[in-house]
């Protein structure tokens, strides 16, 4: 979300809620700390950090948002928000993925693949900035430290259920949040309900406040519940709650949630129970419709009923709804008590298959026809398809829409892989393994554009295990290849080599001579070559690329032949076989251009320029570099553009054209700074 007054500044805080009371002391203290903070003129780079801690439901997140709204003018370079629970898996957070999200929000047009380099990129982009960052639902200080902007003029607001003992001593100013006192709780309830019964029946009102325990979250739900039941006296309504749950030791606020649930109609209650098991932190209307399995009107009515009951988070953006974690746990408890296991299993199976179907369609729209081993998923009866292609689309709009969907739905997609793999491994259902592995295949397209290494590696590992258990050898080979690349990009070369060696062993031992099998065999050899390139083993890489190209030639896959010719040309250039490299790169450049592949054409031009420069053909090298520069700008490849400018500067300097060289160096330096990367060094 962008600030309307500053279109180039990110602002990720939602609109102010209709009702908020108390916390004046905390707000005044926070404002004082910000105003008294000394400017970071001494070079200090540690931001002011405020820790809002308290039990669930005390309104920590809303207070953090309120402070962000009040203090954003002192932090004009952007207001950022991350919810660590959105990416928490098995209790742990992949901090590198959070850094990637923050870098994208800051406008980074290329994200370093390795955590160490990504952290340096983040420090570079945040140094000297006046940013405000809200980190929601932290559990450990080690989750917070790497996310701190490298600027003493920045402000970080952290929310947590308790103290972060592993945060450096004195690193954060703590704000313990207690429940609201009775007077403030009553004020909030009166604002939410505007209900005259609260004044007429003071004893029953006191009982209701006791049930809510001073928790703003519970008071909002109780207020919405009263608004839905306008006629009966409070005494009669409160008697419906009873004392059974209190006697069983369940927190009293649970009774408020139960009352809200009991007021729901059958469809809304069913959807609430099912949402407790939804495999992601947020969902769309389309996904809720698939889960409920009725019709769109019924689903829209059910969601409206849940909102009115206060059982959905009203802070959803981009057409998404959220079920907060506390209510998610409550929904699961309601499902255990009132739900039907068969109903739940059928809904989740329908949901996983719908996501598989949409992910495959998004993959095809975004990446076009390419190597795919999983069978096409059929439409799920009674559901609607996501519209990736729309009438009147300009060139590339449908692909951009598909890429956006994959990124927006990534948490649900990763969650579906985990869910399907767990179901399939248990062996109690007739589905799971095939869906888990097949879902990973379109996630490859997502990885190439938005690498979330922790989640992608976990998903691809599950894809390998699922395909192996299902006995699907082609899909197993594909999954091992997909897993290998993020592994080697994270520096895990030995594990990547083991995956590719096993993939190649399967190819040699089990594959026949059909075209799909031979194409997959060629792809496996290409991955082996790419691993060799990543390791700097250019002779091994050249051998694999040449072998892969020969297979593509035999089966008549023209694009495969061109791509391997390009990769082989690059490898030969590193091996010093410059004349042969030039011949291969020239031909691949022409074929990429004829096929309309602008990005690959630009990269071939760049590689060719480097070969010409080493051959002493300076004028031709300059022409090729300038063509590459034009291509990178056409596809907005900022990192590639900076590399080309560096090469042009080096070439101009070698030809004695120092003025031109300095112009290129200056332009390149500006781009590297935009990316948060050093002008020279290993990060490039």
From TrEMBL:
<dbReference type="InterPro" id="IPR027417">
    <property type="entry name" value="P-loop_NTPase"/>
</dbReference>
<dbReference type="InterPro" id="IPR011990">
    <property type="entry name" value="TPR-like_helical_dom_sf"/>
</dbReference>
<feature type="domain" description="AAA+ ATPase">
    <location>
        <begin position="46"/>
        <end position="193"/>
    </location>
</feature>
<dbReference type="InterPro" id="IPR003593">
    <property type="entry name" value="AAA+_ATPase"/>
</dbReference>
<dbReference type="Pfam" id="PF13401">
    <property type="entry name" value="AAA_22"/>
</dbReference>
<dbReference type="InterPro" id="IPR049945">
    <property type="entry name" value="AAA_22"/>
</dbReference>
<protein>
    <submittedName>
        <fullName>Tetratricopeptide repeat protein</fullName>
    </submittedName>
</protein>
């Amino acid at each position: 979300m962008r600030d309307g007054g500053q279109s180039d500044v990110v602002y990720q805080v939602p609109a102010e809620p209709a009702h908020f009371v108390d916390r004046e002391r905390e707000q005044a203290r926070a404002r004082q700390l910000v105003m008294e903070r000394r400017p970071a003129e001494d070079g200090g780079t540690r931001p002011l950090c405020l820790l809002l801690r308290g039990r669930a439901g005390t309104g920590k997140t809303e207070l953090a948002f309120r402070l962000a709204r009040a203090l954003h003018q002192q932090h004009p370079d952007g207001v950022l928000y991350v919810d660590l629970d959105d990416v928490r898996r098995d209790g742990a957070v992949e901090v590198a993925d959070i850094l990637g999200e923050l870098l994208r929000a800051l406008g980074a047009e290329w994200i370093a693949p390795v955590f160490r380099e990504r952290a340096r990129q983040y420090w570079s982009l945040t140094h000297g900035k006046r940013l405000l960052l809200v980190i929601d639902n932290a559990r450990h200080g080690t989750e917070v430290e790497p996310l701190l902007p490298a600027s003493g003029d920045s402000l970080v607001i952290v929310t947590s259920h308790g103290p972060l003992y592993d945060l450096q001593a004195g690193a954060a100013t703590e704000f313990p949040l207690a429940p609201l006192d009775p007077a403030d709780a009553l004020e909030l309830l009166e604002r939410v309900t505007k209900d005259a019964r609260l004044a007429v029946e003071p004893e029953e009102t006191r009982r209701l406040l006791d049930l809510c325990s001073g928790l703003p979250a519970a008071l909002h739900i109780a207020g919405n519940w009263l608004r839905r039941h306008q006629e009966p006296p409070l005494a009669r309504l409160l008697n419906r709650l009873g004392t059974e749950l209190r006697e069983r030791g369940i927190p009293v606020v649970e009774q408020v949630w139960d009352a809200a649930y009991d007021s729901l109609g059958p469809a809304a209650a069913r959807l609430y129970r099912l949402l407790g098991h939804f495999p992601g932190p947020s969902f769309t209307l389309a996904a809720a419709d698939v889960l409920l399995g009725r019709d769109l009107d019924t689903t829209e009515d059910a969601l409206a009923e849940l909102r009115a009951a206060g059982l959905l988070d009203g802070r959803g953006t981009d057409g998404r709804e959220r079920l907060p974690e506390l209510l998610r746990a409550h929904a699961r408890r309601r499902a255990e008590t009132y739900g039907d296991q068969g109903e739940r299993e059928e809904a989740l199976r329908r949901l996983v298959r719908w996501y598989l179907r949409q992910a495959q369609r998004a993959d095809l729209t975004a990446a076009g026809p390419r190597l795919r081993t999983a069978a096409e998923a059929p439409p799920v009866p009674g559901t609607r398809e996501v519209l990736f292609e729309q009438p009147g689309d300009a060139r590339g709009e449908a692909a951009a829409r598909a890429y956006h969907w994959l990124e927006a739905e990534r948490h649900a997609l990763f969650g579906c892989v985990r869910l399907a793999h767990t179901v399939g491994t248990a062996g109690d259902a007739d589905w799971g393994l095939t869906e888990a592995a097949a879902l990973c295949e379109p996630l490859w397209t997502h990885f190439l554009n938005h690498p979330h290494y922790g989640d992608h590696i976990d998903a691809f590992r599950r894809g390998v295990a699922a395909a192996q258990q299902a006995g699907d050898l082609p899909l197993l080979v594909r999954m091992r290849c997909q897993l290998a690349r993020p592994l080697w990009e994270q520096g895990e070369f030995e594990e990547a080599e083991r995956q590719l060696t096993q993939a190649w062993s399967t190819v040699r031992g089990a594959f026949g001579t059909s075209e799909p099998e031979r194409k997959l065999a060629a792809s496996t050899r290409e991955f082996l070559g790419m691993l060799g390139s990543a390791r700097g083993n250019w002779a091994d890489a050249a051998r694999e690329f040449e072998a892969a190209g020969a297979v593509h030639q035999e089966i008549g896959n023209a694009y495969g032949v061109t791509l391997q010719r390009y990769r082989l040309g690059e490898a030969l250039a590193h091996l010093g076989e410059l004349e042969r490299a030039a011949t291969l790169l020239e031909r691949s450049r022409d074929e990429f251009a004829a096929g309309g592949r602008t990005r690959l054409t630009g990269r071939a031009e760049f590689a060719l320029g480097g070969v010409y420069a080493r051959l002493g053909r300076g004028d031709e090298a300059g022409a090729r570099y300038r063509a590459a520069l034009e291509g990178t700008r056409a596809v907005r490849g900022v990192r590639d553009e900076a590399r080309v400018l560096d090469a042009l500067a080096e070439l101009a300097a070698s030809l004695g054209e120092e003025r031109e060289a300095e112009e290129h160096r200056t332009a390149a330096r500006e781009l590297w700074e935009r990316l948060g990367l050093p002008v020279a060094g290993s990060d490039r």
